[in-house]
Amino acid sequence: MQSNYLKSQFLLKEGITYLNFGAFGACPKPVFERYQQYQLELEQEPTQFITVNGLQYLRQSREALAAFLNCNSDDVVYVTNPSYGVNIVAKSFPLKEGDEVLTSNLEYGACDRTWSYYCEKKGAKYVRQEIKFPIQSKEDFIEQFLNGLTSKTRIVFLSHITSSTGLRLPIEEICAIAKQKGLITFVDGAHAPGQLPINLGTLNVDFYTGACHKWMLTPKGSSFLYVKKELQNLCDPLLISWGYKSARPSHSQFLDYHQLQGTRDFSAFLTVPAAIGFMKENNWSEVAQNCRAIAMSNADRFRDLLKTEPLHNSKGDFIFQMCSTLIKTKQPEQLHQLLFVKYNIEIPVMQHNNMTLLRYSIQAFNSQQDLDILYNALEDIIKTTNLVDL
């Protein structure tokens, strides 16, 4: 069966029910092997790799990524993780005292901290617009979110797919409305590439950062930042290095400033063409659809077991390959540890605002059996411990 073949292509340990792909991803064997080939080439001739061959590989990889995202290859640069990309933009963006950055209260904690830090330094305000659950529809979310807009809003920052709640947000509509109002838009797409199609050519977003090492299947430390050409001059490098006033400048200051920053192993960046190739060879759009079907079909089942309220009333709008369920526990860390140690299940139990969430991720190596194992474990925990309140 195709699912068994795909499971054999991943390096995950046997015996673990792995339902946490959304955290750090997992790399298939052919992509990991390509990664190691690049690392070996680096060690065999470091100078040629870093100063000559590696630059050609970077260009080729960036071109493959740009084709995958439908954007110009000069408008995207590799970064180690999406938080790095957020830091570039948040540090550089010309906020003035009294300006506002509008976001939701569903965003990733590291990004919240980044914006809070730079807003505080600049005298601006980071507005975390509250989203009330259950969300009834895309239109309901849009209305709730846009209630946070004021005459002081300068930039809108929003996740494509949220980390803790796993919700796919209506960024297309939000970006279109923001553009009509003359606002800058920034989408945190950490979980989106590889999980759903990305078309930066039609999205009309100003900044977009995404991970390749999550749903795109590359090794860790491989992500990207896209910046619309007319705004690239705003983006100062986090690290000043040889790209600044380069003796051999390229055609793009954006690439010079951000592509090469000191001595580092950028082999993970170079595996993007191999990862895209792996997805094409294995009809990844169909794989993703099957994974989404499993994620969606189990959502109500876990909510009923845990006797909690839904996060939304429209699964088709909000669920892709990740699904979060509210869970009533005063000891989330102990619950997570018990699930791993006793039941061999790797799944996050996360706190976000005043919520505790159990989030499962469904990837090519997962099956309905994995969620049955989780369901049975939770049933047992409910019966035999006081870790879950009903």
UniProtKB/TrEMBL annotation:
> InterPro entries from the entry?
Aminotrans_V_dom, PyrdxlP-dep_Trfase, PyrdxlP-dep_Trfase_major, PyrdxlP-dep_Trfase_small
Q: What keywords would UniProt list here?
A: Aminotransferase, Pyridoxal phosphate, Transferase
Pfam families, alphabetically? Aminotran_5
Q: Which GO terms describe its molecular function?
A: transaminase activity
The lineage's top-level taxon is Bacteria
What range(s) does the Aminotransferase class V domain occupy? Answer: 23-374
What PANTHER family does the entry give?
HERCYNYLCYSTEINE SULFOXIDE LYASE, L-CYSTEINE DESULFHYDRASE
Q: In its UniProt entry, what is this protein called?
A: Aminotransferase class V-fold PLP-dependent enzyme
| Species lineage | Bacteria, Pseudomonadati, Bacteroidota, Chitinophagia, Chitinophagales
